[in-house]
Design goal:
A hairpin with a 2-residue loop joins β1 and β2. α2 crosses α6. This protein has one domain. The chain is of the alpha+beta class and about 190 residues long. The protein is about 40% helix and about 10% strand. The chain binds heme C. The site of heme C has 23 residues, from α3.
Length: about 190
């Protein structure tokens, strides 16, 4: 009898050994309330929302340009100027646009726009922002939530449809990034035609 109990305990112990890592892995992957899961959801949304396409400087690879992970989402590099816009691309009856190698700087009929630094650097990024400001910017399409209209090609009107919970998760992910010091030049809206 005693022997059976001891053997039973040993078997249970073995199970516990195998189950523990799997269980803790599952908890880490989709823990419903933890900050970890919110950051992971935010990373997922930022990835499918294509924020890196315009807000991350690129590096060239054999497969084409990819986000430079050493300065993820840090916006138009401060030390790089845009090339001159070639003639015949922008005009009263032309609405083409040009961009640079990073896809972070744009010239179009709306003027010149530079994707801002979304990394959590305190002085040059979003380090001093809170969730509320982030949500207001994406819902209103106003620069810093109350300024001028946000210029193309930032598709804020699509992101405005995200739920508060999704936008909060995206902001949590942005907060988890490495802060990159990069003072993006201000965008220059074109004068409105009258
Ligand atoms: C097609 C390019 C493009 C994509 C995709 C894009 N952005 Fe932008 N974004 C820009 C540009 C350019 C600006 C600057 C517009 C301006 O200065 O008026 C901008 C501005 C912003 C601002 C405004 C900052 C402020 O100070 O008010 C925020 C916030 C922002 N983007 C977040 C995001 C997030 C989050 C995503 C992904 C969900 C994203 N953007 C995807 C190009 C893009």
């Amino acid at each position: 009898m005693t022997r059976t109990v001891v053997a039973g305990c040993a078997i249970l112990g073995l199970f516990a050994l195998f189950l523990a890592p799997a269980a803790s892995l599952a908890a880490k992957k989709k823990g419903p309330k933890g900050m970890g899961s919110m950051v992971e959801r935010g990373q997922y949304l930022v990835t499918v929302g294509a924020c890196n396409d315009c807000h991350s400087p690129k590096k060239m690879t054999p497969n084409g340009p990819v986000p430079d992970e050493t300065r993820l989402l840090s916006g138009q590099p401060a030390d790089e100027r845009l090339p001159e816009a070639p003639p015949n691309i922008i005009g009263p009856d032309k609405w083409g646009a040009i961009t640079n190698n990073h896809f972070t700087g744009w010239v179009g009929p709306w003027g010149t726009s530079y994707a801002p630094n979304l990394s959590p650097d305190l002085d040059t990024g979003t380090g001093a922002w809170n969730e509320e400001l982030f949500i207001t910017i994406l819902r209103t399409g106003k620069f810093m939530g109350s300024g001028r209209d946000i210029l193309p090609p930032m598709p804020w009107y699509n992101y405005a449809k995200l739920t508060d919970a999704d936008l909060k998760a995206m902001f949590a992910y942005l907060r988890s990034l490495k802060p990159v010091k990069n003072l993006v030049p201000p965008s220059v809206p074109a004068p409105r035609p009258n």
